[in-house]
Amino acid sequence: MNSHTHILIIGGGLAGLTSAIHLAKAQISVTLIEKDIYPKHKVCGEYISNEVLSYLDFLEINMSELKPVKISELNISTKKGKMIKSKLPLGGFGISRYALDHYLWNKAKTLGVHMINDQVLDVKYDQNIFQVLTTNNNTLTSDYVIGAYGKRSGLDKNLKRDFSNKKSPWLAVKAHYKAKFDANTVALHNFDGGYCGLSLVENNTVNACYLVNYKSFKKYKNIEEFEKKVLYENPNLKDFFEKSKPVFEKPITISQINFDRKKPVENHIFMLGDAAGLIHPLCGNGMAMAIQGSKILCELLVENYSTKMYSSIELEKLYVKQWDSTFSKRLLAGRILQKVLLSNRFQQIAQKIATIAPSIVPGIIKQTHGKPIVC
Fold first, then answer.
1. First to last CA, the chain
2. Sign of the C-alpha dihedral, residues 123, 101, 243, 183?
3. E strand or H helix at 74, and its extent?
4. Residues 2-46+97-165+258-339, CATH architecture
5. Local structure of 246: helix, strand or coil
6. Which residue ranges make up each domain of the chain?
7. What does pTM read for this prediction?
8. Strand, coil or helix: what is 173?
9. What is the pLDDT of residues 315-372, one digit of tens each?
């Protein structure tokens, strides 16, 4: 198949699908390529900050149809189980990627987005035209390409991105459970070598997603042994896992998660979501960042589609400037916060400070979250 589209999106996750919906609403020709078939579970914390609600309304994405869970409280525990409790300044909601991505896929399709189930092998750029090659021998051309293909991809190596050949020590594990759990709360529980997030999603189901250093994990035979020997050292996690019933036949995992700095534009491709920059799950705001990044890029593309004000190079510079202005401080705060809270000594100090001055915690949370989006 050979075809031309104005904008081609690689990846049908949160960033790619919200972008497709935004652009299609503006009557722009969009093709989206996604390698997976929905509905499908993904490794994700499944929590979204309320900062993006007005943008979702603008896109006519009716979240109430998916019955998300409203969340307003944050609990953080040290490895020994001592708790820090705080209000979430903006609050948020829990929704599974299984439900949300499928909903967005169908909405984009209804709006006329050309949806292709395939995998992109390479992207070439010559004389202001992109040529995109896929595993099914499709060759597509476009005026612009958006890279929204997630945390890692073989495409990164083909594009010779700086981080693509570096080994990363991080492994993520995710599963759903049936358990008694405070619907208003998202919990982050530390353990030796990592931390685990717990929060409710739709259908009274708890999402448990943890990040662990692979050196810590590889000492054990399997996930179950690791959880019992390591996670259970935190009494909060021990209590949860012993009293919960797994929904999945087995947890899903992803390895080589890289938190190095990434460039928002590579080889003239506009990067979005985790492909542009991954915030540590401890900061719990990656989904909102993916959605807000889509808004930043799509507003520029829609404006230029009608006015032709900017050249491609000028658009790239504008996007990088706005992306950095919006997210660079959050990502830096996330890296610092993770280093602090993965240290047992700093955990103890932080717990004591938070007990004496509880108002300090919401202030720290604000460093990894944005202000409510105005549409």
1. 38
2. positive
3. strand 69-77
4. 3-Layer(bba) Sandwich (3.50)
5. strand
6. 2-46+97-165+258-339
7. 0.91
8. strand
9. 999 999 999 998 887 777 666 666 666 655 655 555 555 454 445 554 555 555 566 6
